[in-house]
Amino acid sequence: MTLFADLLSTVFERRYERWTRKGVTDTRPFEELTVDLMGAAGEVSGVAVARTILERFASADDAEKLAFFRHLAENMTITPTAVRSALDAYETGQTKSSYRAFMAAAEPPRQEMIRRLNQVPGATRALVAMRADLLRLGRGEASLEALDLDFRHLFASWFNRGFLVLRPINWESPAHILEKIIAYEAVHAIDSWNDLRRRLEPADRRCFAFFHPAMPDEPLIFVEVALTNGVPGSIQSLLAEDRAPLMAEDADTATFYSISNCQAGLASISFGNSLIKQVAADLALELGGLKTFVTLSPIPGLAKWLQAGHDFNDPEKLRALAASYLTAAKRPDGLPLDPVARFHLGNGAEVFRIHADADLSEKGLKQSKGVMVNYLYDLERVSRNHERFATSHEIAMSSEIRSLSASAEKLGI
Amino acid sequence: MTLFADLLSTVFERRYERWTRKGVTDTRPFEELTVDLMGAAGEVSGVAVARTILERFASADDAEKLAFFRHLAENMTITPTAVRSALDAYETGQTKSSYRAFMAAAEPPRQEMIRRLNQVPGATRALVAMRADLLRLGRGEASLEALDLDFRHLFASWFNRGFLVLRPINWESPAHILEKIIAYEAVHAIDSWNDLRRRLEPADRRCFAFFHPAMPDEPLIFVEVALTNGVPGSIQSLLAEDRAPLMAEDADTATFYSISNCQAGLASISFGNSLIKQVAADLALELGGLKTFVTLSPIPGLAKWLQAGHDFNDPEKLRALAASYLTAAKRPDGLPLDPVARFHLGNGAEVFRIHADADLSEKGLKQSKGVMVNYLYDLERVSRNHERFATSHEIAMSSEIRSLSASAEKLGI
Amino acid sequence: MTLFADLLSTVFERRYERWTRKGVTDTRPFEELTVDLMGAAGEVSGVAVARTILERFASADDAEKLAFFRHLAENMTITPTAVRSALDAYETGQTKSSYRAFMAAAEPPRQEMIRRLNQVPGATRALVAMRADLLRLGRGEASLEALDLDFRHLFASWFNRGFLVLRPINWESPAHILEKIIAYEAVHAIDSWNDLRRRLEPADRRCFAFFHPAMPDEPLIFVEVALTNGVPGSIQSLLAEDRAPLMAEDADTATFYSISNCQAGLASISFGNSLIKQVAADLALELGGLKTFVTLSPIPGLAKWLQAGHDFNDPEKLRALAASYLTAAKRPDGLPLDPVARFHLGNGAEVFRIHADADLSEKGLKQSKGVMVNYLYDLERVSRNHERFATSHEIAMSSEIRSLSASAEKLGI
Amino acid sequence: MTLFADLLSTVFERRYERWTRKGVTDTRPFEELTVDLMGAAGEVSGVAVARTILERFASADDAEKLAFFRHLAENMTITPTAVRSALDAYETGQTKSSYRAFMAAAEPPRQEMIRRLNQVPGATRALVAMRADLLRLGRGEASLEALDLDFRHLFASWFNRGFLVLRPINWESPAHILEKIIAYEAVHAIDSWNDLRRRLEPADRRCFAFFHPAMPDEPLIFVEVALTNGVPGSIQSLLAEDRAPLMAEDADTATFYSISNCQAGLASISFGNSLIKQVAADLALELGGLKTFVTLSPIPGLAKWLQAGHDFNDPEKLRALAASYLTAAKRPDGLPLDPVARFHLGNGAEVFRIHADADLSEKGLKQSKGVMVNYLYDLERVSRNHERFATSHEIAMSSEIRSLSASAEKLGI
Question: D2 touching B, CB under 8 A?
């Protein structure tokens, strides 16, 4: 990562910083600026205008931002009549030029505008932040939600797996990256630099993140891994301050115990599946002793799903209830109720083991009565599991989980 | 560049090489493979299928490639009825979901297929090569030319200026990059490593290339620059083997004497304008003495345009004819006949000086009777020039060129 | 620094770690091992023996270490009779071989032993740590103090200025380097990562360290710099949490407010003078606005020197006393009593200004009643100042300091 | 290497270039300059003087250089009477200060001068070049040969194995490094960039060099390796233009077929032994299939040793003669007559196989009638072989070689 950041910062970020320092002197309204950017000169000389728009947006208040978004939503969207006539022409004669005309009509001008904004060094980060604003301000407003689909469409193309770089995060990583790891950790909070260090420095701890070359200082998503002997059954023991680290070479299991998205502006652009599989593949290559790849995951919806009458003091009953919740509780669309289960099962993992008293933190007790689950990534079965889940919502599980579920059913819980 | 290549090669290319070595064992037809890639499992587990497609394509013969392209052209294009009904629904109720449905219908499935192919490490380079094949094989076949528009649309997004990295190319650059510079030089051929060295190593010579992070070993476009005192009037003196180099700090002029695109598969994705302006800006920042930024350019269409009756032995007459050709000879669409003129004038440059006996190479004599031209990039006027050229085809020129043209007119030549 | 650490860690440190993990199986006494290392096989196959010695030493207790040092001191020193006869032979016939024989006799075998130990990857750091042990354990024991002179002689050659690399330390530096900065700061303690960040991240703060390529994870010495407008008069205002940072370009003064040696094992190998001058030169090159280079320094010996009768409540009197102390209080050898004064005056700096209430920390009040001093590095005068100080102990000072001293004298204080 | 060069060039070389450009204005004689450098100011402010000396030396003619060396030889050597009295004092009382005084007297001042010269950025390279001049100009002049021992002593310390960095050289290495490989190849000449490429780019070819951090653009020594199946018997087949490369993973043998020292100024500082063993260890780690490490070496002294009466047309007789030459022909000091044999046997290798018609180049035929030899590096036996060779000149050889030698003896040849 460090090389990377170093190289690209030089190239991109320094210039970026430079323009953020200068005041913006062009005070024309956004409407005029966007016309300018899209006009004849825009393709060739548009960088200055693009810079002005980005900078003005960055310092705008919410009302101004909303006005800007509404301008894009209303004035830079598709024109159905134009689309229809281009489509008619294309149907009549399927030529290069009729197809080109259709493509031009069917794509709203704001997509090209976003691409032109992106010509400015450092713009990608600014555009991701812009979408975070849009998601925040546009909720429930149909035309803004539609506008967001254009951002999302472009970002899915720009942040294609093929453009991402997987980098290890460790105690030799730059401090300004590490402070983002502390800030973005969403599962088990990191409460100090010492806590961070305990998760990065020991020989049996690893962390990996995806980066995009145009945002080298910003992790997109990261995963924390513990190398263990056997499948761990509680987060307390995994993160115990006084534990004795293993030699990495002696571990037989890689446990993914935390995975966090970092960029609000990249919501719905999915990286987690690729990240887990890439990290599993890389670790398997590096450490021949690793045979098992599991998660140690929260069950965020469990407590809410449990009913008042349940006995929460019997760990066995809790485990059976959790098995039942994970494998049988469904949304109307047939997918699992639990969001973390949806994610891992959607990736082709299987429900492997369930542990009571596994997360005794305030948050753990509150959301799942302390219960946690291991999802198993069996690289041989992941593809088949995924396909069955995608086509028939079939949930893969170990025999242990199958028994637990059955016992829950028998008990009528 | 070296850091970059080093880093990213490690990440991407090595893996890429690995898969190209293994034989491909999946021998299903391309049709089935693309169905698989686009199916339920494709988004999550599609990397293996994508790899198979890319590898199979790389080793296919032209007939198989053509069959693959026709499959994309015919079976993975838009369905006009589906677009129309999605458009109708959207017009009736402009909601997030009706817009999403329209977007899905209006984009041909092959675009998503190309994005999924790109998930494979090293795929971007393979896809650029695929488009080079498409351009070569699809010429004149309407549905393949339409298919090419989808490649071009995606590549314009992926190779957006904001994602490109400008790197100096010098005698400390990696040999495998330098041999590409030798191979891709399209204006004044580099005939040996010693010739290359004379263009890179002296203190008054510079070369810069754009790279894309996903293709770190492949320059996209490069420009060769000579730092000079005054505006140079011939390529012979510029490249003379025995010339005495200047100290860079002592130069007042940066002369862009060669600019070459490197990737056939990126045809029509324009980088040259950005490259020239970025290099000019960077050089101006580094070397305070630089006041003038010009090209020393060929006039590839001149000889063809000249008529038999013209007297080619009078250098003054030749210069006047060249001025006339560059400023008055137009295509039906009103743009200059000369392709190099179109490029530089389109960037906002102006026709500055014309020199006879300026390129005495076989090629130079053949294409332009040895005449060359300087285009001036005056950073203060570039934007206005560009706009006038774009809106009214007005050609910017120096008073010297204006006089030359006028004299040509007077002479009735 | 990050590139550097990254590169060289790969090369050296990883291997180093590897050998420290394996148990040592060769349990022969140090005496035997050193004989082996110095014997016929040592030059070519000595790496394994060298590794064993270093590893055994690293895990030895103080008694064993002392025994090892005494072995070197007694059995691997020069043999005066051998030196004398080699000298006689050389005097008789000054040939290449008589000179070589003299060199061999005049250098104690332990120097060659230390060089052979250094063949092991990672050994340089281990040898620096070994000398730290020697300094600690050998104090007052003449033969061990002599032994230390050999370590010091070799280290002065190995850590020659020409081999050191100056690297900026900033908020993008690796965390494992930054934690060493926190640990080694010897002047104004850094009490947290936030405190560190305040010294590294703002645009008007800089930090630089010298590294040696064979110890890329270990800063040797570092200096903290504040870019200011005018010469600062107190450490409180300089480090105030709520101060508003300057733009670096707007600063006219670079203030060196803390300089710390990091390696006990490199005691008496002087880096500070080179570091200050190199940093001053680099900053001057980068920031054209910088006109003044000063320190804001403690006066560690002031409080001890002051007498009971002095009135410490009058800041003016305190300043005069400090001026008197810095410029007139001398050791028997004629050099200033104050160690920080000796260092900066020895570098060619001059006593520039004195401030009362300038360091109100517990340490500052205790050691100097809160008084601090600016030493000025005037690059034009540094060489002359240094020479006068070196040859005649003449102390350079500003007219303000001269007046203060004079007033102190008049007051009889 | 590229990272390294990049980083350190930035740090060192650029500055170096800068000073070489400025004219030297200080025209005092070398004698005065060295007095200045060694004087009171030298330790602290000596960099400017050191720079002047280095630059003046670089542009001096041979007569001036010789005068400079004689100045060092005569005026900056040890003073026997001073050494003797320091030695007497030390013998009387072995204290720290008497030992320090002895060290000071026993080391000639020119050693400290060389260390002070090395403070200048880029100086290490200049000092290595200075020693190359000394070796060239000082031959046969006793006091200059003695002076050289001081350079050599310092360089042995500076270029200690622990400070060297092993870097792969490949087709991605910087051109300015590669051109040095072409220039320095001393065994089998590289006649073009294409020839170089054939030795670097194929999957079954490797090249490695040692670098010193203070001379990052200068390889010190490099070795070329062919990965083969079985032990190769001729250089023609090894370097054949049309051979089909192996996959590296499929090779069972690493053949070191060329090893070249690059720096005349580092003569007698031995790197070859470390290089071969390090490269063998690294390759063994990377490629598990490698079981055998051999050389394919010239026999430079063979032709000269053969007598007129020998029949050079019978390959078997030639092989027997070569075996006899390599194992039985000795210098007066008991070491092998052949210099390459001395080197490899001294490293602990054994004479393994001998091939006729193995080097049919003009040079190969001339120096050894086309015969070549494999030396085997058996890592298990290397240490024992070396020790026996070092202590009793015993030559390790395979049974094949033993038979060949015996047959030669029987034939009385």
Answer: yes
